[in-house]
Amino acid sequence: MKSNLSNRIQSHSLALGSIFALIPFVNCGPSSTTTRQPVLTVLQSSVSIGDPHIASDSPTQLSIIFSIYEALVRLDEVGNYRPSLAERWEVGEDARTWTFYLRDGVRFHNGETLSASDVVATLGRVLDPAIGGAFGTQGVYISYLGTAEISALGDSTVRIVTEDPMADLLDLLVAMPISPASELDKLPEEYVGSGPYRIIEQSATQVVVAAHDEYWRKAPDYREINWIAEGDPGKRVEALLNGQGDIASGIGIQGWERIAEDGRALAHEMDSGLAIIFMANSLEGPARDVRVRQALNYALDVDEIIAEIKQGAAQPLNGYLTPHHFGYNPETPRYPYDPDKARNLLAEAGYEDGLKLVFDIPSVMPDEAPELARMMVEQYSRVGITLEIVEHQDRTAYSEMVREKRINDAAGFDSSPRSTYRVLREKIHSTLRGPWWEGYENEEVNSLIEEAQGTVSDTERQSIYLKIYTIIRDEAPWIFLYNPTRYWGVVPAMKDWKPRVDGLLIFS
Fold this sequence. Notes:
Blueprint: E1 37-44, H1 59-68, E2 73-75, E3 81-83, E4 86-91, E5 97-102, H2 116-126, H3 140-145, E6 149-152, E7 157-161, H4 170-173, E8 197-202, E9 206-211, E10 222-229, H5 233-241, E11 247-249, H6 252-262, E12 266-271, E13 275-280, H7 290-298, H8 302-309, E14 314-316, H9 339-348, E15 355-362, H10 369-381, E16 385-392, H11 395-403, E17 410-415, H12 420-427, H13 443-453, H14 458-475, E18 478-490
Parallel strand pairs: 1-10, 1-11, 15-16, 15-17
Antiparallel strand pairs: 2-3, 4-5, 5-7, 6-7, 8-9, 9-10, 11-18, 12-18, 13-17, 13-18, 14-18
Helix pairs in contact: 5-6, 7-9, 13-14
Keywords: Signal, Transport
GO molecular function: peptide transmembrane transporter activity
Pfam families: SBP_bac_5 (PF00496)
């Protein structure tokens, strides 16, 4: 199983007073006893569920989905793979043939018992082109498993045979929630899974789930979980402090500081697995030249950017991954701020008299993109780069533009998959030309990606990924910026709660 390579994970709990034991809260947090608590109220930016079989990296969406559903495998709190609906699995030495042995006695919310036919039918729906996508993710899963043979070997065994070696198949399956075959045609209007909670109420602003009494693992911690949508992080913090919620997510550093100063709740933080980057257009234009791409990295003072627009709530990237990713190399040096080096590289590339570039940015996701672009304009001007910014208001259309390779000289993006394999296949491999590939070509990298997928040993595959990490850092197909910090607040009764590396809220 994969190990978590991060040595920079932060999970700080600020215990700010024992007076809260005397304050009557609307809802109760976890208890040290085995008695199930009545209701947990979660405050987050959105409660949209959508179609659970559309590829998504949204923690708010996935937190609700995986309270209702389960996949064949799951990630634990620190990012290691654990059995879930599959109690064990095997992979052949060719890294193509996977066999999953299902757990006995798993019941869906409709009373049906899990069988291999449910898994096969669900994966068939996941790979149906009609399912579509969100923010350009349509067809992502099909590109991996569209030619795979997925079959039931009796009632309790599933076999997946991929066309090409796929040693990181679990990276995909962990995000594919399993439904009973009989309920698939009701999606996405009705949600029936095998998870610890079943949905009983849903609106645009609220989702309520109730404990699944026949859940195969230990009894769920709560009788109900009430997910409340509040778009304003300040209002989420206010509601938490006033006893109108038990946990508030996505509160930002300002909310974290307010909770720490207020003393009526506990504050948590953890570096995210999100990479804020600009993907350079290596298909055409000045960024085809590696010297220009390197100069674009040397010319930015990322520490200054983090201090000003993130108030320090981020860590600078030293490459295309975050410390939470498999194959991340903490020893790789980041690009230092070196404007002289940037000028020299630009001169070598033929731009000693200056360079004009056009960058695309979305207005949201990341939300700080406009302010980030403003700082980049100013910093690039110091080395003779005149930067024009084109801001796009429609985030979905922006994703489609990037997917169709219609960007200008670079495009701002948030690289969100926790799967290193997905990042490499969808953004880097030049033969596959995935949805977010923007022209970078390196045959050695392609070969190493393919070698990694034929390598069953995690240790050996990690070694290959470390080689890729160094090459990509040096050839700079992206402008490497930062990975943001995530923040939460919880009531004192949840003093034992800890954030997960994937940012999901899991209560079971």
